[in-house]
Amino acid sequence: MKLKKKNTAAVLLLLVLAIGAIALIPKLSKSKVTETDGQSIPVTQIKTESADSADEQTKPPLSGKHLADVPHIYQKDKYPTGCESVSAVSLLQYHGCAITVEDFIDNYLPKTDYPYYEGNKMFGDNPWDAFIGDPYSSSGYGCYSTAIVKAMQAAAPENFTVSAIYNCPLQTLFENYVKKGYPVQIWATIEMQEIEKSYTWQLPDGNSFTFVSPEHSLLLIGADDANYYFSDSMRQDAVVSYPKEKCDAAYAALHSQAIVVIPT
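RESULT FIELD:
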């Protein structure tokens, strides 16, 4: 009898364990489903963020090392010293503005007379305010960003913001604007040469100003590890590259000034 009771007890114990195991199965399954659902949340978030980033892009990404479809205008035939206006018009055209270089120079660009001598002293106006001389002539001097911003603000439609940027490294301009689809107009020297000569004259307010040569303005449109890429109106090629070190030096020599146009 004791053996029979022991056997019966064993059978009952086995039944209890089996029932307990069956009862645990749904809980384990539910726990596994919950874990899977939890893992799917970050995947959904990542996809959403990617879609949002794509929607925010108003311009196509870099095509290789530089922006594609930046209008290129060769200046030497008609505007030998009008690089600032040519670059500004290329920048506006890139954003869909219907304007020509002639229209920009004739109707929007502030211009003033050439510097002149009285005795041994040279007098002239400020290139931050207006173009010095004639951009249609090979003897024109040039102008700086504030004069071009003023002209661009008058020429561009109201749904564009034209901003001057100062003392911002070229690499930062590339990261913050070019990589997001916005070319940047900068001031440097022709082909990133060292300064060859300079002219110093007295301004109407009594201060002196030194204009360095060969001054140039062009569009920053790309970069790689060693070079910056430009739409350079002094060159017939639509895209040219110059070593970063030379670009940084030439940009600094022309007061580290730049212009960006952002559609609003």
